[in-house]
Amino acid sequence: MEEQDSKTGKSPLRLLLQGGAFVAGWLVTHLSYRRVLRQEVEELRSELRQQMRRLTELEMALSRAAGKTTDMAASVEPACALPVPDTGDEITPERMAVIAAVVTAFLGRKVRIHQARLVNPEVVSPWAQQGRVFVQASHALSRH
């Protein structure tokens, strides 16, 4: 029969075995989390490499298209140029659609924009700017 401690009522061998089991459990958990973390990091790196390749392809295509565009623009007479519309303080529906698409892509869910205004940075008061910062910071923009 094992000798028991008078205070705890447990034998030192039993305490040693429980401590060893705890350490072994912690070690197994730690190693499994490290393995899962390595897999996640490798998946993220692979995804990043794919996105970088795609971005490089798009940049090359854009530069080729820009080169063609400048060649075509040089051949067209300046009198045929379309006038640039002056939007003033108005945001066109096309711009609203682009803003909504960008926010939707960023958040990963459909959004509806209720109001948008152009702000002239030369006229903005510090109080108004701080108010906008406060309002924007109060929104819960969690990304899923």
Describe this structure in words.
The protein has 144 residues and is mostly helical. The chain has 2 domains: 1-78; 89-138, no CATH class. It has 3 helices and no strands. It has helices spanning 12-75, 93-107, 126-138. It is elongated and about 85 Å long. The two termini are 58 Å apart. Mean pLDDT is 78; it is low at 76-85.
**Major beta-sheet overview:** none
Structural class from helices and strands? mainly alpha
Number of helices: 3
Estimate nothing, just give the exact number of structural domains.
2
Oligomer: single chain
- The poorly predicted ranges are 76-85
Apparent shape: elongated
H/E order of the elements? HHH
The span between the termini is: 58 Å
Beta-strand residue percentage: under 5%
Radius of gyration: 31 Å
Mean pLDDT comes to: 78
Keywords for this entry:
144 residues, mainly alpha, 2 domains, elongated
Summarize the structure.
The protein has helices at residues 12-75, 93-107, 126-138.
